[in-house]
């Protein structure tokens, strides 16, 4: 299987204006809707859920993107894959008590969901200058949270990045550990939704490589 991260990014990309052009809450909401609609859903269930995300943002505006905007809101995460797609970088999240992909809440300074996903990936991995394979998400996943969380549910939006497995890892205060795991041998205490989401992330990169 070829390993060409730059080609992967080019194949997954669509014609979107740069995140720096998003300068207001209304612009950010418009960018979120735009990027969600640019997504290529893996199946009908993903397509239907994507439309629920769009409806939520159109209905609640900026509150749909803020942790303080209500008990349910969008979050952004990144499936950081090794360049040969054999491993995924996971964090043992302290509060969740489970292994999951890096990600978290959208902050006011994040112009787009992709920007939030990139920032969270850098903060939780210690990798500098994370480059997403595309500004367009590869999947959406809505999941309820346990009593240890102040939020009721996260409407997560997943992105993909590629990184060398030799990159130096720095464990953040939110994690007990960060490590590479084989995509076909995830830890037993991995977040349940990871097992259905990770194949979609890998498939998006494989599809992009076929188009190059």
UniProtKB/TrEMBL annotation:
Transmembrane segments: none annotated. Keywords: Hydrolase. Residues 71-203 form the Nudix hydrolase domain. Gene3D superfamilies: Nucleoside Triphosphate Pyrophosphohydrolase. Pfam families: NUDIX (PF00293). This is NUDIX hydrolase. GO terms for molecular function: hydrolase activity. Belongs to the Nudix hydrolase family. Coiled coil: none annotated. It comes from the Bacteria.
